[in-house]
Amino acid sequence: MLFLRSQSGGSFPPPLDKKVERELFIKASRGDMNARNTLIEHNLRLVAHIVKKYYTSYKDQDDLISVGTIGLIKAIDSYDIDNGARFATYAGKCLQNEILMYFRSQKKNSLENSLNDPVDTDKEGNPLTYLDILCNEDDIVDEIDMRIRSTLVYKALKEALTERERKIIAMRYGLDGNGAYRAQREVAAALGISRSYVSRIEKTALEKINAYMTKRGVNL
Fold first, then answer.
1. In which element (H, E) is residue 206 found?
2. What CA–CA distance (Å, rounded) separates 46 from 36?
3. What pTM was estimated for this model as a whole?
4. Please, what is the end-to-end C-alpha distance for the chain in angstroms?
5. pLDDT of res. 105
6. What is the pLDDT of residues 196-211, one digit of tens each?
7. Three-state DSSP string of 92-108
């Protein structure tokens, strides 16, 4: 956050070359924090651009910059380099999602704000209220949030679990290709182990997945 604010009066690090960006994403997915930090720094201009373009009249710009940066970090942690989408496009949606979720929480937490209070203006300069934002964007917010969660769950399966844990979770929650949920006794019978052992492994695996996602700012 401090880095972003220190750059507000000057220039941001330049955009990354596509090849370099891809290599950094690969390293970051393997736990390289330096690569992750480089991706954050070189994409901070996107946060500033979106806040400046869509929320110019919002009084607490620093708050939106901080919220947008959280969205950027979530985008970096959940981005799949093989899904075909440009990172800037994916990150832009994640930033908007995070800011809209912030507006939703502000509305819920403040009794002084009315749904009809203006919080911004649209492209034509017309007042934009909480109600406008929530009615128009709720479905988009939920969809993007679900995509982020789904992507991180699959990454957690691959990176945080052992092969046996991965197999049990896949069978229990229909992630093994057939989409069917299986009871613990069915999984136990298929693997030739006890139901209580399946239960213990499942609990440990879910704790690992939750820790993986929490570390990246997303709750399971």
1. helix 195-215
2. 16
3. 0.53
4. 25
5. 76
6. 999 999 989 888 888 8
7. HHHHHHHHHHHHHHHHH
